[in-house]
Amino acid sequence: MKNCERFVGLLSDYADSTMAPVEKSEFAAHLKECAECRSAAEGVVNLRRSLRRLPALQTSQDFETILRTRIKLDRRTHVAPIWNMRYAGSRRVVSYSAAAALAVVCVFYLWQRLSADALSTTPSSLTVSQMQIVPNQALPSVSPAKILYTLDKITPQLWPNLGITRKGAARSSSPVSKDSVQAKPPARTEVTPVSHQVITF
Amino acid sequence: MAEPLRKSETQISDEDLIEKFQRGDIYAYELIVKRYKDQLLNFVYRFLGNHEEAEDVVQETFLRVYRNRHAYQRVAKFSTWIYTIAGNLARTELRRRNRRRIFSLSSMGVEDKEYEISDDMLSPERHTNTVLSEEIIQKEINKLSPKFREVIILRDIQELSYEEISKIIRVPIGTVKSRVNRARLRLQSRLKHLFEKSK
Q: Is residue B51 in some structural domain?
């Protein structure tokens, strides 16, 4: 009985008649002794026979007509994806072209960003004299106390001209030292504009 | 399209047919459909146990073959490729159906659940009827888990080789053999009474 597990594992080979001759004689000898394995072997052989005898089904008569209609509809709505093209070489060309296009876009974007940064850090690019100063009364709805500006529009070089000081720093009417001008401003800083004036660009 | 295949048409291999179709020969596609529609229907029907759903899946299989004809490469047998597509679609359909069943059972009242048909309603006395025997066998096949069901259908109903089954379901041959063996053992123990009656 201890061999039952081994022989159960060979039942399919027995039913498929793919057993090696040595195994086959061992298996036959075991079946003579073991009623349980004998019953299982008979069961598997019967099952295999029954499954093969199951009636073969046929598709309905209009199967191909329906299929043709579906294909026609599909052709109208479905565009074959480009990666389904026949030749792997073409697929490679498409991939390389896409990668190159992406690289060009990235380079262009970086170049634009860099030139914008360069312009904004050039002191001569924007001076107070070029700004139009209008009286505060023109915009009565603007809070007279404090207005928040994004500092990437107002460069540190312009701060003294606009009367801007970093929050917490002592305000002085004397010219701002070089160190304080070069200090990196925070991303967003509270700014007090020159009194009675609003700057428009 | 219902007329039988001519001799020259049966001699041409599946692989040659799909290559012709890849070159734009629509007639080659029609021959492929003729060759495989019933085989695939039997495979999918035994897997799903529903004729209508099975026919839908086979339709979808041929549609995929049409759409993705250039994805086939001659390194694999065409039959392996088309059976893989059909098997994947059948498994997807089964999962969808199971989700639907869970939903409909959860929305049923207690009283509704009592009217579900039990397997015990098929008494052993009626097993002598061949049609009923087929139904019982199909019912027992449906009770197997999909991984066992698929291999036993491919092996014992479709009569494919272990090697081909291994390629279709993408598992090693040893695993296929072990699954077939276990599926056969389970089925034979559940259908023992049927075989004893028919002796």
A: yes
φ/ψ (deg, to 5) at A200: -120, 145
Q: What's the DSSP call for residue A175?
A: P
Q: What is the pLDDT of residue B107?
A: 56
Q: Is residue B192 part of a domain?
A: yes
- Exposed, middle or buried, B50 (CB in 10 Å: 0-12/13-18/19+)? middle
Instruction: Give the pTM.
Output: 0.62
CB–CB contact A52 B159 (8 Å)? yes
**Residues near A48 by beta carbon (within 8 Å), at least 6 away in sequence:** A15, B156, B184
Distance CA B66, CA A71 (A): 8
Residue B150 has pLDDT above 60, yes or no: yes
Of B41, B63, B189, the CB nearest to A70: B63
State how many domains chain B has.
2
Alpha-carbon gap: B87 to the closest alpha carbon of chain A (Å): 17
Where in the sequence is the domain holding B19, given as residue range(s)? Answer: 11-108
Terminal C-alpha separation, chain B: 43
Of A56, A63, A84, the CB nearest to B71: A84
Which residue among A15, A46, A54 places its CB closest to the CB of B157?
A54
Q: What's the complex ipTM?
A: 0.78
Q: Identify the residue among B44, B184, B186, B191 best suited for mutation to test binding to A, counting A beta carbons within 10 A and taking the highest.
A: B184
Q: Do B160 and B100 share a structural domain?
A: no
Whether residue B62 is contained in a domain is answered as yes
User: Domain for residue B24, yes or no?
Assistant: yes
